[in-house]
Specification:
alpha+beta, 2 domains, Immunoglobulin-like, single chain, 7 helices, five-stranded antiparallel sheet, six-stranded mixed sheet
């Protein structure tokens, strides 16, 4: 949004996000501006539209082990394979969940998954971002526990908080309420987990304790 497209002094995207989250101190002035400025009103509508949940996520079905697929393909016949071939086929998978797990008091090990919706297509843990992408956060931890979750995007030396912090009950593939976009290029997107409400002042200063972060490249 530029000043030329706005009727008066434009309301920044960050202030519009704070208004959508009911965190803006001068909300009355901002709403008065939106009432007379179609450009800012349209930007605010995009932000509030992002609050709608993404379509239901399809379940992720783990592929059968290579030996099981081989057994099925050969009718279960016993195979004698040279040891060298076995060494080539058996590789430890690059398990992203191992790198995106945070241990939290009261919740245990919490696995974090980033979900991106792009033109109707769902991707899990991608590393590329476009301005029109919509993002959500998904958590998996043992039922019975709970953790506070917050999201912070670091971009151009600033910290942005696109969602309100929430206490989430543990479960399998629990989707954190709210969706958001990342505009103006790449960013470091961090999901913060804690037994209590995260300290945004600390996060804003760049302290990433209790966070799992992903560098998103603009594409």
């Amino acid at each position: 949004m530029t000043a030329a497209a706005c009727s008066g002094e434009p309301v920044s995207w960050l202030r519009l996000e704070q208004l959508a989250l009911a965190e803006l101190t001068d909300a009355a002035a901002a709403r008065a501006h939106l009432a007379r400025c179609p450009a800012c009103a349209a930007a605010f509508a995009r932000i509030t539209d992002d609050a709608r949940p993404l379509p239901r996520l399809a379940p992720v079905v783990a592929p059968a082990p290579w030996w099981k697929r081989w057994q099925l393909a050969t009718g279960g016949a016993a195979l004698v394979v040279a040891a060298a071939v076995v060494l080539l086929m058996v590789r430890k998978p690059d398990d992203l969940s191992e790198r995106r797990t945070v241990r939290v008091k009261g919740a245990g090990a919490v696995v974090v998954t980033l979900v991106r919706e792009r033109a109707g297509a769902i991707a899990f843990d991608p590393v590329e971002v476009r301005p029109d992408d919509r993002w959500k956060v998904q958590l998996t931890c043992d039922p019975g526990g709970a953790a506070w979750v917050d999201v912070v995007a670091y971009q151009d030396g600033q910290a942005f908080f696109p969602l309100a912090p929430r206490r989430i009950a543990c479960g399998n593939s629990v989707v954190v309420p709210g969706a958001f976009r990342i505009t103006d290029g790449g960013a470091e997107l961090c999901v913060v987990l804690a037994p209590e409400a995260p300290d945004r002042a600390r996060l804003g200063a760049g302290d990433r304790r209790g966070a799992t972060c992903t560098t998103l490249r603009a594409r």
